[in-house]
Write a structure and sequence with these properties.
By secondary structure, the protein is an all-alpha fold. The protein contains 14 helices and no strands.
Length: 405
């Protein structure tokens, strides 16, 4: 129960702070007149920690040798996060762009430390329940999104920055509490020698980061390529959806409801469906179904952009909700596979390598999307997203039929 409570609380925090950074702030920036290129670079900078975490994961892996030290990492990261979010109230959305980049970068560092520590703990203690842990991750993050995006935007629109930020800090502080009890966990396999690792056929010493990366890339380049391809369309498209919705004259108050209430329902639904489909269809087939649905979603965005329907705004919100649901189904399937690959005595490092591969898309796609939107418009942007998802569907389908996935 302690493990599940910490997963729920930690990913509620991740949903609160993560949505504040990658959805709420870009929407406010756009409403303040910031260009799509600037917003793209903002997202690029603040998501860098999720790709660079492989550089500090060895230190985390070496430090978290006991449940007490695991607790120290969790509590320290969460308390640091509270301070950083509180400091955002001192900044101005229109003029302090560089400071927001630095502050949000540090927020993501704190979130990544919690993710590495807790994910490795989950890998070590619950070897047969990855899909359910990943579903909990999705559902908890969706609940957190209510506060990080929906509640914040509604309070910001009615009462201003100070009230909205204070409410955000208060919610994070509540969810920090379970991390004070993680020292009571009994680790089943943590730090015990493992005969095999799904990521590396031979165990690689933690002190040799270069050797670890070389082995992982050499033996798993095809898996890394498939992960990159599977998420390219979604990563390219979803980070800029808030900008698109603002450009379609949807108010920040309405966005608060969409990002908070509606998308939370879609995320929870996606988490539940992802766990069930993963169990019935298998994770790879679930991913292929999601790629097909992604293509449908991007066709819908193109339709809404062209204004074919007289009810374009309502259809656009409906498509966004479907997109969130599909994205979370895929997340459950993909991350369950990544957790399986990461089992072994270097679980934290293996998890960071695979997670960093997927995060690589998160840092390169926003600026690419920003330039596509600035120079060619949203029509071309969504066509590119559609093309990426369709290519991934073809490749995954072909390799699936050949039995090479």
């Amino acid at each position: 129960m302690i493990l599940y409570a910490n997963f729920i609380a930690t990913y509620c925090i991740s949903g609160i702070a993560g949505m504040f950074v990658i959805k709420t702030l870009p929407s406010i920036f756009r409403d303040s007149g910031m260009s799509a290129v600037q917003i793209g670079w903002f997202l690029h900078i603040v998501l860098l920690p999720w790709c660079l975490k492989i550089l500090y994961t060895p230190y985390i892996q070496n430090y978290r040798k006991t449940p007490t030290k695991t607790q120290t990492l969790m509590v320290g990261a969460n308390l640091g996060l509270i301070v950083l979010v509180a400091l955002s109230v001192l900044l101005d959305y229109g003029s302090d762009f560089v400071m927001f980049c630095l502050l949000c970068f540090l927020i993501q560092v704190a979130l990544s430390i919690s993710d590495i520590t807790l994910s490795a703990t989950g890998i070590d203690t619950h070897i047969t329940h990855y899909a359910y842990i990943t579903a909990i991750r999705v559902i908890a993050a969706a609940i957190g999104a209510i506060f990080g995006s929906g509640m914040f935007l509604l309070l910001y629109g009615h009462y201003g920055t100070q009230v909205a930020t204070s409410a955000l800090v208060g919610m994070i502080a509540i969810f920090v509490l379970p991390s004070f009890f993680i020292h009571k966990l009994a680790f089943i396999s943590s730090f015990e020698p493992a005969s095999t690792s799904a990521l590396t056929s031979t165990s690689v010493p933690l002190k040799s980061l270069k050797s670890t990366l070389k082995t992982a890339l050499k033996e798993n380049y095809h898996k890394i390529a498939l992960i990159l391809l599977a998420n390219l369309g979604a990563r390219l498209g979803m980070f800029m959806i808030g900008v698109f919705l603002v450009d379609q004259k949807i108010s920040l108050e309405t966005l608060g409801l969409v990002f908070g209430l509606y998308s939370t329902f879609a995320s929870i639904t996606g988490g539940v469906i992802g766990a069930r489909w993963g169990r019935r269809l298998g994770d790879k087939k679930t991913l292929m179904v999601c790629l097909f649905l992604e293509c449908v979603v991007f066709i819908g965005f193109i339709w809404a952009y062209l204004g074919i329907s007289s009810h374009a705004q309502g259809i656009l919100i409906g498509i966004f909700i479907l997109a969130v649901c599909v994205l979370n189904i895929k997340f459950v399937a993909l991350y369950a596979v990544m957790m399986q690959y990461s089992f072994g005595k270097n679980s934290a490092m293996d998890w960071s390598i695979l997670g960093g591969t997927e995060a690589f898309l998160a840092i390169i796609c926003p600026p690419i999307g920003g330039y596509l939107i600035a120079f060619y418009g949203f029509g071309v942007f969504f066509v590119c997203c559609l093309g990426a998802s369709f290519l991934a569907l073809l490749v995954w389908g072909f390799l699936g039929l050949k039995g090479k996935l």
